[in-house]
Specification:
The chain is an alpha+beta fold and 179 residues long. The protein has helices at residues 2-19, 112-116, 128-131; strands at 44-46, 68-77, 83-95, 117-121, 124-127, 135-141, 145-155, 167-178. The protein has 3 helices and 8 strands; from the N terminus they run αβββαββαβββ. The termini are far apart. Bound molecules: calcium ion (3 copies).
C-alpha cells in the first residue's frame, strides 16, 4: 500500500515538472480565410424578357399560299451556369371560323390551314402540327452568353381555298436545362 502511494507521488511530481514547462513545445498556426459556398444560377431570357413579358414572335395575318417569313429570336442565359436550350411548340388550337363561298369543299371538322403551315427550325421543316409536342434541342448556351434562333415559316404554295379564314394559335416555349 505504501509502495503504491510513493509511486503515485512520484508520478505526480513528474507530471508537475512537465506542467511547469520543463520541455518547451513549439507550434505554428496558419489560417485560410474567406472560404465560402455560393450557389450558381440559370436564367433564360427570350429577347431580353422573362414571363409574362416575352413578346409574340409570329403574328401572321391574311396569309396566302406561298407566303413566308422568318423571325430571329435571341436566347440569353443570364445566369452563371452552362445549360442546354430547348424549343417546344405547344397548345396548338385551330379555328375554322367562317366557311365562305370559295371554301365550300371544306372537310367538316378539319381545319386545313394547320397542315399547310410549314415551319423550319434548325434546318428541319415540318408542318405546324408535326412540331407540336416535340422538344427540339437548340444546343448549348453557356452562362452569361446568348444565341440566335431562327424560326422560318411558309404557307404551302399548293394550299387550296379550303384554308380561307382558318386560324391556328400556338405557343413557343423555350427552356434552359443545366448541363
Ligand atoms: Ca428567366
Ligand atoms: Ca378550312
Ligand atoms: Ca375557314
Amino acid at each position: 500500500m505504501r509502495k503504491v502511494l510513493m509511486a503515485a507521488m512520484a508520478l505526480a511530481l513528474v507530471a508537475g515538472l512537465i506542467g511547469m514547462g520543463v520541455y518547451a513545445k513549439w507550434s505554428d498556426t496558419e489560417t485560410s480565410k474567406d472560404n465560402y459556398f455560393q450557389a450558381g444560377s440559370l436564367d433564360l431570357k427570350v429577347n431580353g424578357k422573362d414571363d409574362p413579358n416575352v413578346p409574340v414572335l409570329i403574328e401572321a395575318k391574311n396569309v396566302v399560299p406561298g407566303q413566308g417569313d422568318s423571325v430571329e429570336v435571341t436566347l440569353e442565359n443570364a445566369g452563371t451556369l452552362d445549360g442546354e436550350a430547348y424549343l417546344h411548340i405547344k397548345n396548338l388550337v385551330c379555328y375554322e371560323n367562317d366557311v365562305i363561298e370559295p371554301e365550300v369543299d371544306d372537310e367538316p371538322g378539319k381545319v386545313e390551314l394547320c397542315d399547310a403551315i410549314l415551319v423550319t427550325i434548325g434546318g428541319v421543316t415540318r408542318t405546324l402540327p408535326q412540331w407540336v409536342n416535340q422538344t427540339v434541342s437548340l444546343g448549348d448556351l453557356a452562362g452569361n452568353s446568348s444565341m440566335p434562333v431562327t424560326i422560318s415559316w411558309e404557307i404551302d404554295e399548293n394550299a387550296g381555298p379550303n384554308i380561307m379564314t382558318d386560324k391556328c394559335t400556338f405557343e413557343i416555349e423555350f427552356s434552359l436545362e443545366q448541363l
